[in-house]
Amino acid sequence: MSAYDEFNTHIGKINDLCCVLNLLTWDARTQMPEEGTVTRGHQISTVAGIAQEMFTNPKTLQMIEAAEKEVKGEPEDSYRVRAVRYAREHYEVARKIPVSLVTELNELKMISQTVWIEARKNDDFQSFAPYLEKMVKLQRGIAEGVGYSDHPYDALLVRYEPGMTAKRLKALFAELKAGLTPILERAKAYPEARHDFLTERLYPADRQKAFATDISRKFGYDFKRGKVDLTVHPFEISFTRQDVRITTRYDEKYAPQALFGLFHETGHALYEQGANPAITRTALATDLLDLYAVAGTSYGFHEAQSRMWENLVGRSQVFWNNHFPLLQSYFPDQLKDVDAEQFYRAVNRVKPSLIRTESDEVTYNFHIMIRVEIEMGLLDGSISIKELPEVWNAKYQEYLGVTPPNNRLGVLQDIHWSSGLFGSFCSYTLGNVVSAQLYEAALKQNLEIEPALAKGEYQPLLDWLTENVYRHGHAFLPDELLRRSTGSSLTVEPYFRYLNHKYEQLFPPKG
Amino acid sequence: MSAYDEFNTHIGKINDLCCVLNLLTWDARTQMPEEGTVTRGHQISTVAGIAQEMFTNPKTLQMIEAAEKEVKGEPEDSYRVRAVRYAREHYEVARKIPVSLVTELNELKMISQTVWIEARKNDDFQSFAPYLEKMVKLQRGIAEGVGYSDHPYDALLVRYEPGMTAKRLKALFAELKAGLTPILERAKAYPEARHDFLTERLYPADRQKAFATDISRKFGYDFKRGKVDLTVHPFEISFTRQDVRITTRYDEKYAPQALFGLFHETGHALYEQGANPAITRTALATDLLDLYAVAGTSYGFHEAQSRMWENLVGRSQVFWNNHFPLLQSYFPDQLKDVDAEQFYRAVNRVKPSLIRTESDEVTYNFHIMIRVEIEMGLLDGSISIKELPEVWNAKYQEYLGVTPPNNRLGVLQDIHWSSGLFGSFCSYTLGNVVSAQLYEAALKQNLEIEPALAKGEYQPLLDWLTENVYRHGHAFLPDELLRRSTGSSLTVEPYFRYLNHKYEQLFPPKG
Fold first, then answer.
1. pTM, 2 dp
2. Which of A303, A360, A446, A504 has the highest count of CB atoms within 10 angstroms of its CB?
3. Could you list the active site residues of B?
């Protein structure tokens, strides 16, 4: 066996264990009977421990070094070279984080998630505060271990957005604020679109599912390698490209949640299903730091796909012109007095709100900025846990003009901090920005895409994305992948062109 | 950490991996999209390899030895003593089987199952024969490795029925033949019970499920620690006692399949759910040879529970007197001209048939004897693969008076041989015999059980079984557990008392 093959076989087994971890999680969230929790925790912990040991073992370094020698001189862009390089990068980060910190973090996550659930239910920030305090301290410890030159946040971003920094994010946010504020102001000047038919009529769950899976299929989701299940918190998860599942919940009193939720998860699934078969069970389909089977190169790039299929495609006028009749055929009574244009306007309302997950395309980014600014402040010590609710509420007033009446609808709304996901919030906004940049490039590079979309055909868009993004897995880091696919580094221009075009039509500038 | 704790922690992790293997299998059979097969195979193989290495590693032996020293002098029946002893026994067997044979067997299983599926579909024994030849050779190799004094079959029985031998089985079969033949002859002399309402009317699947799960719940299956899923081949599987799942399929044209199938799987599930919480994640809840998370002490003892709840309870007259009105409430049209007695007789027909899984309580054992006699013959060389179809058909004619018209309905009907399960068929018949022995003992020892059953209450029976059998896991081998719970070694007497009583009422001796 060659050195590369030995390396690749070893990583293949780690990938298998990551797929197993994903399955244990999927099952716990969609299938497991309620009293299975504790023993499932043991199972996850045992498999994660074995995978962690296999990856951080010094033998892995020897295999990486031997493989590096073997692939030296091979084409810079080849999957072999990239797989070894990527494994090396993750190995270097992983070995800088003390094992004791990882153990402590895993234990804290389990407890603090439980405490957070109770705290949110009871609107009791004080009970969660000490756990958040510990979590921030642990995150600082990890940042110190990994190392950074400018801001501790940079060291956490490595895990979710390799190449991104606090400084770059701050600059991006400044641009976003400047560009989004006028759109939001304009939207506020308009009366809300009619939407009684969305909030006052019942949409049976089975028909919601039927319509949304029809659309998923049209987008290109391969049901021979996927399925749709029921869950409380929707997500996408994969066990190699051969088995990529999505989940959703159905609110019969508010159908858009499940419809757009399924478009969103379909976008994630298309990324995973689009991976090149050649990278199956390789480093390029594995997050070796988080021990998570995933081919998407970063959280932001993944989110860009879900946002593209949910928003740029799924919330477009041309989409509803094409597919509203199908929706109407599933809900003839509910939509008998509604037309495509009214439906399009109803699902594109813009209105500042308190809850991130219920926000619209324009205000969503403000929810993210607030969180990221707070994370940075917690990490560099400029914000204390004690003053957190106050800071949160002040920022909501400043950016969105709304103030949470309690912490349940404020600082306690997200699971992320209790789960230790510091550094991941920015991915949602990066996803928005990247989705528009990719979409614009796709339409420019392949002139068949736009006419196809006009006819409700998605294969040309999917082909471009697969060819330029999906198939590569982790072969290229976000910045490199963006330049390769769009010819440009990260830029907000396409995003603003997209938003301005859409919202000038919905809310033409007055006077 | 004490030596025992170190041993127990190590085995706990192996149990976690066995639970993971069970989940990977459950998911593959009930959830996985069709194209997930190949990568799922890798995942199973990786986890099984790790679990195998963890158990057969010499360090495990050191831990067992250290734990043996520590528990020396503790009560003979204590779970600690038993866990160490059981692990030692399995370790001794496992280390006698060369790793190369295990690998070869696992690879052969995968291929030969696929070949068997095709062969059965095409009624083509010849295409399967070479794989069966290899399989028998491998099984002989395993038998030689494990060692035996009398018959190679004894070495294979260790895995499924520790303590059982070819010699004991032959004696048992002789007794069974002598006792069953007159019952079968008597049944043949009677006209078949009316059963048009079972074969000529449609029973919607959702109502079949509703009735069967009502009964499962009455039997005592805890749905907070279990659930019922859909599958092609029904089974029960667990991931600790906290999560014990059963599956079934529904034939709307023949409801008894799903109804009794679910009673059967519920019996298996009650065994697993009834394990003492103290043995969770210990050796006593783990088949360390097969790397399978299971608390039942042998295949036969497990089958005894499924048979007891399916047949002794679920096919009894008193059961249908109690619950036929409930069944009728789910199927008012289908059962409008049927009464409890007619239903009871219809689901207790006795008739020789070609297919094991469709056979009745009396003829079932003949199907098993045929298979076990053939397995013994294949192993000791007295039967060749070439003459197998002929031998099969001759035995069917001899024992049951029927001859398969083709191999699809004959020698190709079971998955077991392609899966390498040589030595496991006898468990079905042992299950029948043991179920009656346990049932009789329970009713004798606790006089509240029978009146409760007469009222459709199952808690007293379940309590007796849990106390005497279920809670112990692998602490006692089958023979010992039988003596402890019934005061007697394995005996066919209670089984014949049960059958004769039941079938003398159904088919009174004539003349």
1. 0.96
2. A303
3. 265
